Amino acid sequence: MKNNVARTGFASIFAAALRVSMAATAQAQRGSCSVAGAAGTYGTSDSGTVIGTGPRSAISLVTLDGEGNIKGKVTASLNGSVSNTTLSGTYSVNPDCTGTTSFGEYDSSGNLLITATLALVWDADMRELRFLFVSAAQPDGTALTTVINGDARKR
Question: Where in the chain does DSSP place strands (E)?
């Protein structure tokens, strides 16, 4: 009788430990982010202010290629003036689902309008992205002070 109780208890403890181990492994895999996992096309929107210039609001369709490159089309309103531009640059992703992107934004003639660096955070199994502009500069290097954040969702 004692052996049956001991065997049953051991089997229950083993099964519980196995379930906990499998759940932890699944959670770790879900929480691990990568450049390849970020790959896809995202619809984005952002809003905020360029200090000294005025309010900004924008929408874009950007593609992350899985090799660390980003490109896209942007429609933005800056202090009431609407423009259509393109962007291209690079991005990085950390295993904790944070990252950065740096890109240039260009007018229809290919002239550089601005360079920017953004802080990134992915969630929802890398289907959603939050971002914050951390620096921006004009082509001559003049820094712009921004308070702009946004969201993106993978299509």
Answer: 40-50, 54-64, 69-78, 81-93, 98-106, 112-123, 128-137, 143-144, 146-154
Indicate the CATH number for domain 35-154: 2.40.128.20
Of 11-15, 95-99, 127-131, 143-147, give the lowest mean pLDDT range: 11-15
Q: What is the DSSP string of 18-46?
A: HHHHHHHHHHHHHH---HHHH-EEEEEEE
pTM: 0.80
Rounded distance, CA 101 to CA 79, Å?
Answer: 24
Q: Among 16, 28, 103, 14, which Cα is nearest to 65's?
A: 103
* Measured CA angle at 77 (ends 75, 80), to 5 deg: 150
For 98-121, the pLDDT digits (tens) are 999 999 999 999 999 999 999 999
C-alpha 121/C-alpha 33 separation (Å) is 10
> What CA–CA distance (Å, rounded) separates 8 from 140?
74
Asked if 111 and 27 touch (Cβ cutoff 8 Å), the reply is no
